Amino acid sequence: MTVKHCFFSLLIVLLSFISLQAYSTNLPAYEVSSAPFKLEHFEIEFYIDATEKMDFETVQQQTFTPARNNLALGLKAPVTWIRIPLSNTSSKLKTVYLHFPYAFHNNELTLFSVTDGQAPKQKSIDFSKQGDQPWMYRGNAVFDIEIPANEHVTVYLKSVAYVSQWFSLQLYDDEQSKRALTGLYTDVSIIIGMLLALTIYNLFLFLSSRLFEHLYYACYLITAGVWIGMTYGFFADVLNVYGPASHNGFLSLILMPIFLLLFMARIFETKKHYPVEHWLLMAISVILAINLIFGVFNLVGALKMATALAAMMMLVSLSVSLSMLFRKHPLAPYFLLAHGLFIGFSVVSVLFFNGKVAFNYITSHAVSIGILLEALILALIISYRIRILQKIKDEQSALEQLASTDPLTKLFNRRAFTDTTSQLMAQAKYTERPICIALIDIDLFKKVNDSYGHSVGDKVIVRLAEELQTQCRLEDLPARFGGEEFIIFIPKTSLPDAKAFVERIRRNIEETLVITDSNEEVAFTISIGLALVDKQYPNLEHTIDLADQALYLAKEQGRNQTCTFLELPSESKKQANTLE
Q1: Residue 464: CA atoms inside 13 Å, Cβ hemisphere, count?
Q2: CA 188 to CA 236: how far, in whole Å?
Q3: Helices (H), ranges, 405-518
Q4: How confident is the model at residue 496 (pLDDT cuts 50, 70, 90)?
Q5: pLDDT tens digits, residue range 379-426?
Q6: Where are the beta strands (DSSP E) in 105-208?
Q7: Which pLDDT score, from 0 to 100, does residue 471 have?
Q8: Cβ neighbours, 10 Å, residue 26
Q9: Alpha-carbon span 353 to 77, nearest angstrom
Q10: Among candidate residues 44, 87, 51, the one with its CA nearest the CA of residue 66
């Protein structure tokens, strides 16, 4: 062999060595011979293809960067190559399984396995294609890699992300792979289940109360659940939806804060009481809505803008929350706590999706954690608001009751009686059943007051009121008409039956004794005037006037008796009928 031939042989060996060095990895190969084989925390190498066009041979010659197997690279690494060296020192062929749990948000995955001296083996998942995909299991990519006996294999994985590049890789043998695939997405399922329960509860609250804060909160929970389900694999797991088919679900990320802002406006009643804060909430809602419409036509562009808009939304919502806190709104501290947690975890999530923080469970699931914590505290706000509204309602009812009730007897007062019975009288002409009005007066009440004092007079009034409440039916309406005078609205009762009814009251009162503080027994009687409502021309005031004339007759005839309008002298009845 000549010197020339030796030189060329040495050059070829040197070039071959340089070429092998370019293709080699700086990491030690992971030994797969032992069983069980399970790698969940290990080193990899990655390379970002900025051109997005490099072929496999070109990529092999690039310089890779060491990193952990859980990695977030952000928006500027849409095409990333991952390299993992494997070694089998046993005398048998070994098969290991590379798991990519978050494959569902990718556009494409391609795996190359390179064995020394052999052509690379290639396996690809194209998410743009519909139907079953090989190496996909419930949104989780699982590539089987064969490593011959006493051989080294270098694995290259090409990950083409839809928007943000983030991934977590694991290596298992067959048994460990099966175990890893059981219980996938259990944590996300629990979160979505809790959000669904809160959604159903608030939809029922909205249907029963018609308060729109419940509807806005339910819509916020729905959009949050959709976003979590799409981002963390729930829909890939349950519905087998992933890749481009699932990407429109990410519009919920833009829609979610709109409902949260509308919810804020309702619970703080900004439209009614705080116009500046209301304008800010509505302005940012409109901007988000415009971006949502833009996202229908350009989802990637809308999601890239969502980061800046999310920061703007958080600034506005936080400012309004602080304003409500300074104004001492009772719900402000709770909302500020809930929204503060959401904002804190959202900031972590934004940093994660932009590749600014390390990959771990909290950073990768930050938004879902923040949403769940906020949703639970907002549910407490909903409950607290319901309690406040119920308290206000009870106070209003109490005030209405005080306004319509006689404080001594607890019967309706004259105004409440008139308001209530006027409506009933208006319906009288459309019914065939008679209605009567009874006017009752305590006989010689002034004498009772003068003889025994006003406290005994009050006892007499209360005793008569108790008798009326005891004897009246549910449909009857007794009231204190003024002083010692009472009135009863008696529906569905003829004049003779009404007279028998009030006569029973009169006789019971006649047999009643009121005991004074000095143990004296005081007897009293009542006189009653009764009139029948004219169904053709029902008029409350006119009927009361007729009953008053009948009462006057009962007093003229000696008191302690019941008279009806029909028992008046003919001339008096004729005069009374002309009062309308």
Answers
A1: 31
A2: 12
A3: 414-426, 445-452, 454-471, 495-510
A4: very high
A5: 888 888 778 777 777 766 666 666 778 889 989 998 889 888 887 877
A6: 106-115, 121-126, 136-137, 140-147, 151-161, 165-168, 170-172
A7: 93
A8: 12
A9: 11
A10: 44
